[in-house]
Amino acid sequence: MLRIRGLLLDYEAPECLRGVEKLPNLGWVLESDGRNVRQAAYQWQLSETEDFSSPLHDSGRVESDESAHVPVPETALHACRKYFIRARVWTEQEESDWAQGSFLTGMTNGPWQAKFITAEGENDWVNSKGTYLRKTWRIEKPVKEAYVCATALGLYHLYLNGEKVNEEQFLPGWTSYHDHLCYQIWDVTPFLHPDENVLGAHVGAGWYKGMMGFVHERCAYGDRTAFMAQLIIRYQDGTEETVVTDESWLGCASPVTFSEIYDGERYDARLEQTGWNAPGFAPQMGGTRKEQPAAPLLDRLKESYTEDEKKAQRRFAQEYRPADTLWRPAQRVDFPLKALSPQASGRPAVEKTLPVREILKTPKGETVLDFGQNLTGHVRFTLRGKAGALAHIRCFETLDAAGNAYFDNLRGALAEIRYICRDGHTVTYDEQFSFQGFRYALIQEWPEEIKKENFCACVIHSQMMETGHFVCSNPLLNQLENNIEWSLRGNFLDIPTDCPQRDERMGWTGDAQIFCRTASFLRNTYAFYRKWLRDVALDQQKTGGGVPHMVPNQLQYFPATQDWLLSQGIHSAAAWADVAVILPWTLYLTYGDTRVLRDQFDSMKAWIDFMRDHAKDFIWNYKLQFGDWVALDAADGSYWGATPNDLTCTAYFAYSTGLFVKICRVLEMEALAREYEALYSQIADKFQRTFLDDNGVMAVQTQTAHIVALYFHLVPEKGIPGTVEGLKKLLQKENGHLVTGFVGTPYFCHALSQNGCKKEAYDLLLKEDFPSWLYQVKAGATTIWEHWDGLKPDGTMWSPDMNSFNHYAYGAIGEWLYRAAAGLEIDEARPGYRHAVIAPLTGGDLSWAQGEYDSVYGPVSSHWTRENGKITLTVRVPANASASIILEQGAENPESELRFTRNSQGQWQAETGSGTWTVTYLLNE
């Protein structure tokens, strides 16, 4: 039976899209119980009504097998409206039923009438309080539909008639605000009442105004938080009304007296105003705004502050209390509306909650909640306390060697919640504008008996559909896969961060680049990465083509002249900046979508040109380079691995240029492709003449030097055997262990398995002693660590100045599990898994392994078992797709209903269409 499992708009279920400004990419996933199923034709329709009685567009029957990137015409969409879309398909034998969905448009070309408004005064730059804003109006006739678009300079929660409109968290997210500010849209028809209505917002400092970054400065983007909303009400009589933010709104201080990303939140329930966001509330009005005086040592006009002045700012913000909670007219804040862009999907939200696993009593006598899992989010708690009673919690990742709470690796981050009770009633509290990275919570003060059932951990990350699954016979490897997944959760909160716990939590480009292929197996990353890549390009424009180390690049506002590291340079580090090319290419491979290549083309070209312009005789190096960061072959006390920066920089210069050549050809820019192909040849030639010996063998004696040369195909054919042998010797020198850092580790197993060293790749993967991936697992890790020895065998820690226990970079090994162990590869000529290459490698102590990826065509999977030298491989190919099944070296006597023949590499290979297929073979190793 033929059916459409679901429509896809920009690779998401249509209902997930709220706020598109033009017709999205259209596709669908087909399902059939048949084999070799190929779509022959399709039809799709667009309508403003659910019954499709008068479609706005009807493609008619189109003879085509396209199902992932269906051509859509330029269609004028009305602002803030629900549209319905449906499709059906035909094969040569069958016809599907219609599959239908709906989506919401954003402002499209509709004018913004709303203005940014604030309840803060000029001196409020020194605090990080929350504020309330509210507006009342009346509805006199029946409503047909209503939609609200909202955003903030800071963070916001939106309410309508006392009900919370958004379940999402940390809106509008963190972007390069002055050039790119997201807004969100909701259908609020069910929230409206006859007669009086109230629209309210709770606004906090967030990334926009709070203290952030290495330099611990405040107000990077602006001095005051602000909010903007535009509510469109369409009545049944055909008329329309718009409610917007302007100076007619009222504002006041909220019970959130302090909330920042690093230090947590302070909430005084005694300042609550019940019903502030609902009809019937009578605001107590104040006169002229009472400006809170600035603290000593705080001068907003200064260009920079001493460390003592920064500490004074921080203390002042934390201890701030509003002068009153009276309501006053809001003030307008100027902000460029051209920066506004819809965030149609991928908004952060609470994904799940975890109960307390155990209440611990530490040797120091501390009471600690153990949630059993390192995560990102906040602690939700229920309590009852008399007026003025304090509840005080501090979140942290791990216990020290003695079993006590360990905070040193948080550096300056307080990561705390302070809640002051109001009146003895039972309440449940969630942090409003802060998040923590934690497994444990220390109860420093509590007004009643501590019970497990009164606490849970809320897991927060950007909403992305799960797409990949890997499982095998080795439970430690399964836990590693689980740890990788949890580190993704912990560091995909609106932007890809390095870590979620210490006073950093920045969008490091290197971590994102290293992990992007793994992430794109685990989740549907399309919308998440596309949003962030826009900021990569925007921030890049301010550096002459160089790519910042961190995006959004807050350092453009506060140069890190006093920081020992970043004072050397704030952009254009090899492997970090190359995210500008590698990430768009990864998205193209994963989804087959050329739009991301077109949208990022200028950014990619600018980065290649920047390297070319600053290279010396095709050797690339520039200011601050991280090299093979935190490699174990680093000199004592150094973060830099032993591999020369000239080598890693030039290798990436070649690699990104080579990818750019491919991208030019995908986009049919042949003249540019030839130009940059010549550049690539010059870089590769220089690399080989500089770092390889006369036989073409890598001369630099580090693991990472060999790895990048092999994986980036910079070794000539004659030098490959010698370079592979050299890598094996370097591995043997370390008793089979890696000593690589951020550059070498992601590609280590690939460099081995792609060059006939499958056994060595599995041996490396399955090492259980230090340093290895499974050492962390056996040490009790539930996420990926920043350092191989973050927690040493004796229970002591790596240096607390940089020791995250939730840092996904080394989780890039997940890519090898999917691409090699499960064998799920992409054919670059037919990306998006339109044609998959399924070539699993059996090995190690694994008796079976299974991997699956839910592609834009549907699930592609492999499952192999091994018993007495006989391998049974079962693969699944989605409808309207095809695959090459390639058996590993040493495979003999394949038995299958498929026709296997020897390919040019001497391996058995079969071509197939959709369906489930099985082959058995003997393995001669």
- The value of Rg in angstroms is 29 Å
Number of DSSP strand runs: 46
Low-confidence stretches: none
Mean pLDDT across every amino acid position: 95
Count the DSSP helices.
16
Q: What is the general shape?
A: globular
Oligomer state equals single chain
Distance between the termini: 42 Å
How large a portion of the residues is in β-strands, by DSSP E?
25-35%
Largest sheet: 10 strands, mixed
Please estimate the helix content. Answer: 10-25%
Class from secondary-structure proportions? alpha+beta
Structure description:
Helices cover 21% and strands 29% of the residues. The chain has 16 helices and 46 strands. The mean pLDDT is 95.
